[in-house]
Amino acid sequence: MLASAALAAKANEQGQYLARIGGCIGCHSVEGQAPLAGGKAFKTPFGLFYSSNITPSLEHGIGRWSMDDFRRAMKRGIAPDGRAYYPVFPYRHFAGLSDQDLAALKNYLDQQPASEQRNKSHQPNLMLRAEFLLQWWQVLYPPLAKEAALSRGQYLVDHLMHCGACHTARDPLGGFRDNASLRGATLASGNPAPNLTPHEQGLLLWEPETIAEYLRTGKSEWGQNARDEMREYIDTSSQYLNDADAKAVAEYLLSLPPASDFRACIKHGPRMHFCR
Q: Which UniProt keywords apply (predicted)?
């Protein structure tokens, strides 16, 4: 009995950890309202979108979802009723999550207090209101495939923490540009998401310990302080990284091939030397 309770507590702790560093709590919670009840606004070039209620509410949340429903939503961007989710939900990254992590995450969400808060209606641009266009987009931009064996750092960066959702430049249709992974982008707010490769325009001078500390505090030894979207991400998500995972993320980023800032490449054209 005690052993079962201990295992359940450990599983719930693991699920909470995944929900935090995966952005579930940060993106699906609004200050002053019920946790995980959704309603957070995301302004994009394609319209205004709101996070959904992911509490166990039977009416407004995911209380009726089976594990298969949850897996299909997370990995393919498909709702239980067959609707395609808008890609503001980063299912393309979550497609690489392990079944074990998905199970732990759903177990945690199922144990949270249910909120009967209704989901807000998205306000997409006119051209995106047709269901077939979303389905077409999902065919054009399939989920990111997970390699057979990933380091812990790559698993965190590319999938669970979905760093590329902000730090990778996108094309006019909202898909990721070729050869742009983690090379920096401009967010919908106009704020820059910097280059995360070990290039002189990125993390070249950063040590693993400095990156790990920045992810958890938003401060560096050079006096840099996180602001805007990164400050919010640290406050709601990456500050909870444990020592091993913070180190794994830092080491993976510094192992990437150095690449110049992709925003400069777009501005000056593909023939410029820094686009290579």
A: Heme, Iron, Metal-binding
pLDDT mean over 187-196: 94
Distance of CA 237 to the CA centre of its chain: 10
**Of 119, 140, 161, the domain-final residue:** 140
Same domain, 165 and 116: no
Which residue intervals of 141-220 are DSSP H helices?
A: 152-155, 164-167, 208-217
Mean pLDDT, residues 89-100 = 96
The total number of residues shown for the chain amounts to 276
* Verdict on whether the full-model pTM lies above 0.90: yes
The rounded distance, in Å, linking the Cα atoms of 5 and 11 is 10
Domain that holds residue 95: 2-140
One domain for residues 164 and 248: yes
pLDDT tens string 138-169: 999 999 887 777 899 999 999 999 999 999 99
pLDDT class for 84, splitting at 50, 70, 90? very high
Are 136 and 177 contained in the same domain? Answer: no
Tell me, rounded to whole angstroms, the distance of Cα 104 from its chain centroid.
17
Residues 133 and 21 in one domain: yes
Give the model's pLDDT for residue 271.
45
User: Are 229 and 190 a contacting pair, CB within 8 Å?
Assistant: no
Q: Are 113 and 186 contained in the same domain?
A: no
The closest of 155, 146, 165 to 18, measured between CA atoms, is: 155
Distance CA 140, CA 101 (A): 27
